[in-house]
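Example record for the data management plan.
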Amino acid sequence: MPTIHFKATLHRLDTQPGDKPWIVLTIPIEVSTQLPTRGMTMVDGIIGGTPFQAPLEPNGKGSHWFRVDSIGETIGAADGDTIDLEITPTKIWPEPDVPKHVEQALAADPEAQAQWFDITTMARWDWLRWMDAVKLAETRKERPAKLCSMLKSGKRRPCCFNRVYRTPPKPATLL
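Corresponding structural encoding:
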């Protein structure tokens, strides 16, 4: 896949009350259409001269976005700044950050844990997105047990959830 060069503007995204806001970058639609998928895709890139890797999330409006929190600080960019970028889609996905409560649920269920490690890295990313893609905190609390049950029943990927809502995005990582 060729490298894509473009400019984009950073924006502040307020999250949960009391949490630090995120700095995000929305990929222009004409750039997003050049990506290999409309879904989440991993890219290696350069932002403001700094190499990074990030999962690009679909934004539900025909484009993608990603968090640039620490990179914004590193390159001295903030909300409202327009910056130069280049991105190259990659098929190499790093392991997702698994929340402690999910690790604990999997550790308590060896059969589910074996299935967890048998699925692809991208499928693990999708399961973690599914875990948080709910409006009610009570439902979110039930998800680790349901994850284990679904993995043990042979499900390798979650389905039928809003991938835009409450995705636990991992910020871009400096390389």
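Summary line stored alongside the record: The first strand starts at residue 4 and ends at 13.
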